[in-house]
C-alpha cells in the first residue's frame, strides 16, 4: 500500500474538497484565481510524489527478485545482468521519497519554510533513518533457528552470518543501524558489545532489538561516529572502563573484534577512519567485514559497464539520499595497506563476490599481528 502521509499534508494545506463549493463560497473571480494559482503547484507536487511512490512499489518487487538473482556469485544471463544495473535506482528513489516527505513535513506541517536550506543535515539524517528502518525491516534475522517466519538471507546478506558468528571478546559494532545483525551476536563468547551509531533516530530500534535478543545488559549504544577523537571519549563516558588499558598504552588497543558491515562506504575520510580502527584493535584482534566496493572492472570477473553505472549513480545523488554512501571506494586496498606500519596483517582472508554487478562485495577476516 502506498504511503500517503505527504499527500495528506498537501491536501490539508489546500483544504479543497470540491471546486464548485469553493466557487460558491468565493464568488469573486480574483479570489478564486488567486487560490487556483496557489493550489496548482501543490497538486503538481502531489501528482509527482504519487508517481514516485508507485515507481518505488514496483521497485520493491524487482528488488526482491534481484536478491534471488544475486543469491549466487555466478553471473546471471546478459539481460538479467543489464536489468540488475538499474536496481540501485529503485533503492535511491525509495530513499528519495523519504527525503521529500521529511522536507514537506518541515515546510507544510511545521511551517519551517527554509528548513530544506538551513537544516539540510538534520533533514537528511531524519530521512535516511526512516528509510533505513523500512529498508532493513525486510531483512530481519532471528537467533532462533526454528523461526520459520523469517526467510533465509540471500544475496549479499548471505555473506554476513558465517563471518559475524565468529565474533568474540569485546566487540565494536560500527553503525548497527536498526540492529539487523544483532541475532548473530548472541554468542556467550562475546563479553561486551558497543554499537557506535551516530543516527539517534535509530537508537530506540537498537534498544528494542537488544532486549528481544536478551543481550541488553552487555550492549552499549555509543552515540557517535567511529573517529577516534569522538569514539574514545564516548567510550569513557559509558563508565565500563573499556578504554582504561588504551589510555595507559594505546598499543594495547580496545577491542578484540571490530565489525564493519556496509559502513565503510559512508564513513568520512575512510583511510584515516580505518587507520584509527586498526589502532583500536588489540594485538591478535580481528576485523570482520562485509562491504560493497568499487567494481573491479580491470579484473577478469569485473564489469566496465558496472563501473560506469556506479559513477552515474554517484552523480545523480546516491550519496546525498543514502546517508553519504559511496559506491566507488577501493575498500580492499585501504584495508590491506593500513597494517603496513606493523609489517602487514598476520592473516588476511578476503573474497570478492558479485563482481559483475553495480554492487560487488568484499567479505572476510583480517587478523592483527600479536605482540
TrEMBL record:
InterPro entries: SAM-dependent_MTases_sf, Thiol_S-MT. Gene3D superfamilies: Vaccinia Virus protein VP39. It comes from the Eukaryota. This is S-adenosyl-L-methionine-dependent methyltransferase.
